[in-house]
User: Fold these one by one.
Assistant:
Number 1:
Amino acid sequence: MIPESKLIESEVLIRKSRLPNDVLLTRKSTIRWLALSLGLINPNESRTVLVDLLDALFYLHYCEEQPTTKDILAKMKEITGSEQNPKAVYYHLQRLTDGGILNRKKGVYYFGTGDEKDLSVIFKRLYESRMNSAFSDIEKAFSRISEG
């Protein structure tokens, strides 16, 4: 038996979700919608650490800052009004980095190459690249089974 779980290098999950106007009324609900649509959180996720982390990261990105973990924790405290559990924040930063969504170099975090401003372009390029890579192998598999 092939150890299937060991074959998986990464997953691409994008949800086609309606974007009603009431979602766009607040920054937090918009970021939550983005996290859900990009497959970063599950439906009905009750924990908010990742959404708060994304809020801080997006804010710092648009301020053209490449923050350290300390900067991120400070921004999250400013946004939420309370201290965040550093272990939980480190965990989610590592997940985002391992997933290729976030990059880290010399202790600072950034999206894309670090020079790009438009997050929609950065995320679209990342997800398209992953899907193209996956479909390259899927096409190879279909080609093999079409041979009989």
Number 2:
Amino acid sequence: MAGVDNAPGCCSPRDSMGCCRLEALIGIDERGQMILPKETRERAGIKPGDKLAVVSAEKDGQICCLLLMKASELDGMVKGKLEPVFKSASK
């Protein structure tokens, strides 16, 4: 991803999760590994060597949801949130 824009991601809170859907059901093997189906990888633009961030949500002290996202997208989201804070702090 060449540039970072501050536009909200696909499943941002402002979007009310309207675009999220069940993409695939996957299994976990005996080594704890999982395979993302080829069609899902292609649709998401995930290529060999890409890094994925695992983001979790908790409810009542238990992880109830895991989200995979490209690390480059996470970087852009963090930068978009922190950049205004640093700008206002430096004034």
Number 3:
Amino acid sequence: MQDIILALATPGGESATGVVRLSGEGSIELAEPVFRSRKPLTAVSGNTLVYGKLFHPENGAVVDDCVVSVFRAPASYTGEDTVEFSFHGNPLILHDAMDLLLSRGVRMAKPGEFTERAFLNGKLDLAEAEAVNDLIRAHTRHALASARAQADGILSRETEEIRSGILDVLALVEAAIDHSDLDERFYEPSTLLAKIGNLRIRMEKLLASAPSGRILSSGMRVVLCGAPNAGKSSLLNLLLREERAIVSPVPGTTRDVVTDELSVRGIPVRLSDTAGIRAAADPVEQEGVNRARRALSDADFALAVIDGSRPPGSDDLALLSLLEGKPAVVLLNKCDSSGYLGESALPETCAFPVLRTSAVTGEGLTEIEEVIEGRFFSFGYRPGQDTLLTNARQEDSVHRSLTALESAVKAMKSGAGDEIVAVSLRRARMSIEEVTGQSTDEALLDRIFSRFCIGK
């Protein structure tokens, strides 16, 4: 028998309503002696709301009026008996209510423990459980739509179809192994290779979705880079629509990487302003330049800011050289300046798309958002149509499964025995099962659910 767990299921602070959740065998019986209503909780059917008062049984002192939601196993989120108390959202009331319930022998839930129990009790698989966390944390409409599709099982269905296909192939190979003493042929190699080929195509398509899935889950890493005083911090403030970074005419004001989140046309973006990239004698500024280079190295997309009111300098040329081979666009800034040079401020060798921008007038803001949106969709994602891998764990599982299938193909083509082919196919099956948690271990579960908030 598992412990009865308790958590606050609504955010802290004052609110209209605060919810305290209990789950585990015996939850209803535990709550009944401290809840006064017209009907005992143990006599209430599942999926029922009951109005009453939470009180201290020793002295009868009332904690608060509340509405209790009763869910009976297995028809609950966790698959266990569950009781949810809805109180007035005063933090003092919620604190007293939790203290009272804890005094009756329950314990505080760990992060994600309610959802972990839902997974362990077969209410949802691991990919769907991860989607619950993504659903809570999604900050943009595309991220929310992706999480909703994942929670509805779109990835689970796709990986289950792939797993089923692997099992079909494996069954034929194992039948050949089991009856190797017979002259009967259990499969045609060309047919089997064609089946595996179709599975590989589906898995490669899934893997190609990983960059889009990671961006929707964690945000596109977009870096503003350029020489000192090119206007990077001003453009950061323009894009964020708030004064986030310090702006000064003194070159080298930004010494560290300043990062904030925003939504660009429904796409989550982690936008970073970096120190001006130049040779610096000051050790603090040099560390800032080093951090700028690292941020640029990790970026999904770079916005290279060049001051269009002066001829290109050595720092500008060095920046463009540094960006070679990276997805980037040049923001030719300060187009509001009377001395604006236009594209003549760029070297002839500049091969990047160029946008006119001004942090003063806002010119170029729409175009910057358009190129960020274009970069996201360049990965090939079609909202509402494509299945996504949304984290590194899922991507690794599919990659290992695909690698195992490729090993099976090599074994077949080289004339290796069916036993060798079967080993690779079993490995492919076990790896793809990890996506939904059919094959997993306790340490992995702990790591996944520790990222959840307490109460979910």
Number 4:
Amino acid sequence: MAILLSWLGFSAGFVSCVVSEYGTPTATYKAKGIVVSETNDAPIEGIRAVLKTRLDATHGMDTVYTNNKGVFNLKGWKMGTYEMDQSKMYVELADVDDEKNGWFTDKNVVVDFSHVKFKGSGWDKGEVEKDLEIIKMTPKE
């Protein structure tokens, strides 16, 4: 009987109520903002926003494009306690739609999560969000 139960995945350990936590803890990071023109405060549609852990990173954690109101919402995850202790991330803003909405100079914005409280607790650190509010991009001449 013991052999049959072990084949089915049962063991003497099922009596324990302790939940084991496997894997690496994670944290969710969110950044949002509104991109406008520096000259007239008009929202800019079609700006690519990329959430990065480092400025020199070739890949981002999330990529979105601003809507017709200039709004973007990014979401990314960090894993492991070392990564989660690094409180700065970056949003890379790039004008990639040719001259559709005018030409704008690319911009990097520092996102400092050091003074923002995480929602949630336990094995995973939880979720943190930072509102970058209004970000102005300079038109190219």
